[in-house]
Write a structure and sequence with these properties.
Layout: E1 2-5, E2 8-23, E3 33-49, E4 54-64, H1 68-72, E5 87-100, E6 105-117, E7 120-123, E8 132-135, E9 138-153, E10 156-171, E11 173-175, E12 180-182, E13 194-203, E14 208-216, E15 219-220, E16 228-229, E17 232-240, E18 244-245, E19 250-259, E20 267-269, E21 279-281, E22 286-295
Antiparallel strand pairs: 1-2, 2-3, 3-4, 4-5, 5-6, 6-9, 7-8, 9-10, 10-13, 11-12, 13-14, 14-17, 15-16, 17-19, 18-19, 19-22, 20-21
Length: 296
């Protein structure tokens, strides 16, 4: 629902989610399972056109249901489903967006706050074992986002985005063999506080190319915040041909890409891995060749 009031516009919505997952076990154990998630999620927003920009503010609610993988991986090894709850999210955001046509420039700036109940967190119980999931309390995310698009000259376009997020547990515990550890005030694992990405693209006849730079900030590997993964920056290159016609109804777009140009050594994070094995070496410098097929 959108209600225009001059330069001011009011929007409102109401969404109902009904999600059901079923496990039909055809083994002799007959471990069938059913999980149903329901949510009524209202939202409301305001925007104001100031001429050169648009100011906006939104309040929304939502549900993030567990996937079938998260439901079916049970620590006890039984069939059926875990007794997991969906994440319930209340989010507030506000910011400004503008497009300057003459300068071929547009930007978005936003501040956000999210309150999350029943946060889903992965964990392991043995070395190189399967990943399980559990609801581990509540969290709140506070942060800012910025995005910029600019086309200085016709063959060249530039895009950049930046996200800062302070993702913190507000409640939750971990049961240890000898004691219970509170997570209140800890950072959510696997969530970098800073993320910056920028891409420059050029379009010439008959080639297209891009250069992408991405910086990912420090992040924790576990809910207890005992292990950190360092910040890293990677650079990727890509070159493609817009299209090669195979028939009147089909065309192919070949490409070649060089990822991690400077062969940066960094790790991916395995959140809450067993035995402190939170790190997996990421790919070094590598080439990719391929093609995409499109039909008219």
């Amino acid at each position: 629902l959108a209600v225009p009031l001059g330069r001011l516009q009011l929007t409102a919505g109401l969404r109902y989610d009904w999600l059901q997952s079923e496990a039909d076990d055809r083994t002799p154990d007959n471990d069938d399972g059913t999980q149903t998630f329901r949510s009524l999620s209202p939202s409301i927003g305001l925007s104001y056109d100031v001429g050169t920009a648009r100011l906006f503010a939104n309040l929304s609610t939502g549900l993030e249901a567990p996937t079938t993988t998260e439901l079916s991986n049970r620590p006890d090894g039984q069939g059926g489903f875990n007794d997991l709850n969906a994440e319930n999210i209340v989010a507030v955001e506000g910011g400004v967006a503008a497009t300057w046509i003459a300068q071929r420039l547009s930007y978005d700036l936003a501040l956000f706050y999210q309150d999350i109940d029943d946060v889903l967190v992965p964990f392991q119980m043995r070395d190189f074992g399967p990943t399980y999931y559990r609801n581990q309390g509540a969290a709140r995310n506070v942060g800012a986002e910025a995005a910029l698009q600019w086309r200085p000259v016709q063959p060249v376009s530039l895009e950049a985005s930046y996200t800062y997020v302070d993702a913190e547990f507000t409640e939750g515990t971990i049961e240890g063999p000898n004691e219970t550890t509170s997570l209140d005030g800890n950072q959510l694992p696997g969530v970098p506080s800073h993320r910056l990405g920028a891409t420059a693209q050029f379009h010439t006849d008959p080639l297209q190319g891009s250069l992408t730079v991405q910086t990912v900030g420090q992040q924790y590997g576990d809910s207890e915040n005992t292990a950190t993964n360092d910040r890293y920056t990677t650079v990727d290159l890509r070159l493609s041909h817009p299209s090669v016609s195979l028939t009147d109804a089909a065309r192919i777009t070949p490409f070649v890409a060089l990822n991690n140009v400077f062969d940066v050594r960094y790790n991916d994070v395995v959140v809450n891995a067993f035995g402190g094995r939170f790190y997996e070496p990421a790919a070094g410098r590598h080439w990719r060749f391929g093609a995409s097929l499109q039909f008219n």
